[in-house]
Design goal:
This protein is an alpha/beta fold. 37% of the residues lie in helices and 24% in strands. It is elongated, with a radius of gyration of 27 Å.
C-alpha cells in the first residue's frame, strides 16, 4: 500500500488547493485532427484522411500546468508565447483552468504548436509551427525577472524544458538559486543533453532516451546507464535523479540508494504528456511535504491513468481518488470518514463516473447475515457507503445494554470488509439526514421491508435513484447471538 495514504487522500480531496506551484518552460498548443483512412490518393502514394474530429489542448509546459491545476494546486506559469490565434486558444484553456499566466512574456515569435494527424488512432503526420530563432535579449530578461519575482511566492518550482528556448542557462541558474534560498523543491524535465544547467535542482526527471543522450550510454544497457546517471547526479549536486523507464516503471537514484516503483499502466493508448503528468504530480507532493517515495508512487499511478487516454490529457484528482479508494486498496482506518470528507469523496467518485450505493444499520456483533447484505449491496453499484449508528443511537433503538461492541470498534471491523468503501457514523435515530448528504444512486435495506417503508426512499427515487430490498438470512441476528451467549 502507498506510504502516507491518509495524507495523500486528504490532499487530493482539497489540501492541494492550499499550495502554489510555478511552472517555467516552453509553452505549446497541441492540435489533433482525427479521421478515417480507407484509400490512397490518386495524386501521390499517400493516405487520404476523411476528417471526423479536431480538438486542441495545452502542451509542453502548459500541459504540466494543466496537470497541476487538475490536482487542485494553485498554478502559476511562466514562458513565452506570441500574439496569434494559437496564443488566444492556449490562453483560453489556461484561463478556464484558473492558471495564472502573469509570468508569461509575449514576443514577436509565433506560439509553438504541434498538429498531429491520426487515422484510426494511428499517427500519420505531425506538423510543427515554431521559429528557429530564440526570443530576444530584452524578452529573455523580462522572463528572468518575472520568474525570480514569482519563486518567493510558491511552494515548488517545475522547469519544463522542451529545448525551445525558454529555459536558458541563466534562467535555470537564477530559478534554482532563488528556490534554494527559499527552501523549496525544484523539479526538472530535461530535453537537453547537458544536465549542468540544472545543477542544484532537487531532481531531474529524464526518460531512458534522454538519460542515454546525456550520458552517451545506450538506452538498452540499463545498469550501465543508471550508473552513469548516478555519476551525473553527484556531479551536478542533485538530491535525486528520477528516471522514467516506460513499462519498467520509475527508478530513483539518491544519496540513500535506489528506489524502484513498478509501472502502473492498465492499458496504453498514448504516452504523449505522460512525463508532464509525472513531474506535475511529484511537484505537488513535494510542495506538500510528502516523502519522495510517496511522490513517485502517486506520480506513477497518475501516469498509468493518462497513458490510457488518447492525446495530451492532464490528470484529474478525482481519477486518482477513484483509483486509490477501491475496497482492497486502502487500510480500514482510511475508510472511516466524517460527513464533510464523505461529501468530498462522493463528489470525486461521481466525477469519475462511479455509482454509489448506501445502506445502514447498527452492525453490533458481525454475523453472516450482515456479510450477505453487504455483498448483495455491492452488486448494485461500484462504491458502497455504510451508515453506522453511534452508540447513543443504538441505545435509543435497542436498549441500555446495547451495543455490545462500541462504535469505534464496530467502525474498524466494518471498514475492514472488502465490500465496504466508506464507513460513516450517524447519531440520529434514522439515516435520513445522512442519505441527504450521500444522495445514493441505490438505497439498500435488508429485512422484511417494502420500498415504501424504507427511510429516505422518497428523496432517492425523486432524484432518479432506486431502492432495493435484500431478504434477511434466517436465524442470524445480533439479538439471537446475544441470547445464546447469555444461555437463553
Amino acid at each position: 500500500m502507498m506510504q502516507e495514504i491518509h495524507a495523500v487522500l486528504g490532499l487530493l480531496e482539497g489540501g492541494f488547493g492550499e499550495l502554489k506551484v510555478l511552472v517555467v518552460g516552453d509553452l505549446m498548443l497541441d492540435r489533433y485532427i482525427l479521421g478515417e483512412v480507407d484509400r490512397i490518393s490518386p495524386e501521390a502514394p499517400v493516405p487520404v484522411l476523411r476528417h471526423a474530429q479536431r480538438y486542441e489542448r495545452p502542451g509542453g509546459a502548459a500541459n504540466v500546468a494543466m496537470n497541476l491545476a487538475g490536482l487542485g494546486c494553485q498554478t502559476l506559469l511562466a514562458g513565452f508565447w506570441g500574439n496569434d490565434t494559437e496564443q488566444r486558444e492556449l490562453a483560453a484553456f489556461l484561463d478556464a483552468a484558473k492558471i495564472d499566466t502573469a509570468g508569461v512574456v509575449s514576443t514577436a515569435l509565433p506560439t509553438i504548436s504541434k498538429t498531429r494527424i491520426l487515422g484510426r488512432m494511428q499517427q500519420l503526420l505531425r506538423l510543427d509551427i515554431e521559429s528557429r530563432e530564440r526570443p530576444g535579449a530584452v524578452d529573455q530578461q523580462r522572463l528572468l525577472e518575472r520568474v525570480e519575482g514569482l519563486v518567493s511566492k510558491v511552494h515548488a518550482v517545475v522547469l519544463s524544458d522542451y529545448a525551445k528556448g525558454a529555459l536558458s542557462v541563466e534562467l535555470c541558474e537564477t530559478a534554482i538559486r532563488a528556490a534554494r534560498r527559499a527552501g523549496i523543491p525544484v523539479l526538472v524535465d530535461p530535453k537537453t543533453t547537458d544536465f549542468s544547467k540544472y545543477s542544484g535542482a532537487t531532481t531531474v526527471c529524464p526518460n531512458l532516451g534522454e538519460l542515454a543522450a546525456a550520458t552517451g550510454i545506450p538506452a538498452h544497457e540499463i545498469e550501465a546507464l543508471l550508473a552513469a546517471g548516478e555519476a551525473q547526479r553527484v556531479e551536478h549536486d542533485l538530491k535525486f535523479l528520477t528516471v522514467t523507464m516506460s513499462e519498467k516503471g520509475v527508478r530513483v537514484l539518491g544519496d540513500e540508494g535506489t528506489y524502484h516503483s513498478p509501472a502502473r499502466a492498465r492499458e496504453v493508448h498514448d504516452v504523449s504528456g505522460a512525463g508532464d503528468t509525472v513531474i506535475a504530480t511529484m511537484a505537488a507532493c513535494l510542495a506538500a511535504g510528502l516523502k519522495f517515495e510517496t511522490a513517485v508512487e502517486l506520480a506513477n499511478l497518475a501516469a498509468g491513468i493518462v497513458v490510457g487516454k488518447v492525446g495530451t490529457v492532464p490528470i484529474a484528482h478525482h481519477e486518482l481518488i477513484a483509483l486509490l479508494t477501491p475496497s482492497s486498496g486502502i487500510g480500514a482506518g482510511e475508510k472511516i470518514l466524517d460527513w464533510e470528507r464523505l461529501a468530498k469523496r462522493i463528489a470525486e467518485w461521481r466525477a469519475a463516473g462511479e455509482s454509489v450505493v448506501f445502506t445502514n444499520g447498527c452492525f453490533d456483533i458481525l454475523h453472516v447475515g450482515h456479510i450477505t447484505l453487504l455483498e448483495e449491496c455491492r452488486r448494485f453499484g461500484s462504491k458502497l457507503v455504510l451508515g453506522l449508528n453511534t452508540d447513543a443511537s443504538v441505545q435509543r433503538l435497542k436498549g441500555p445494554t446495547r451495543p455490545v461492541v462500541g462504535e469505534n470498534e464496530r467502525s474498524r471491523v466494518m471498514a475492514a470488509l472488502a465490500a465496504v468503501d466508506v464507513v460513516v457514523l450517524f447519531d440520529e435515530d434514522t439515516p435520513l439526514e445522512l442519505i441527504g448528504v450521500v444522495k445514493p444512486d441505490v438505497l439498500v435495506k435488508g429485512g422484511d421491508y417494502t420500498v415504501e417503508s424504507v427511510v429516505g426512499h422518497e428523496d432517492v427515487i425523486a432524484a432518479g435513484g432506486r431502492v432495493e430490498i435484500v431478504p434477511t438470512v434466517e436465524e442470524f441476528s445480533t439479538t439471537n447471538i446475544v441470547k445464546k451467549m447469555q444461555g437463553q
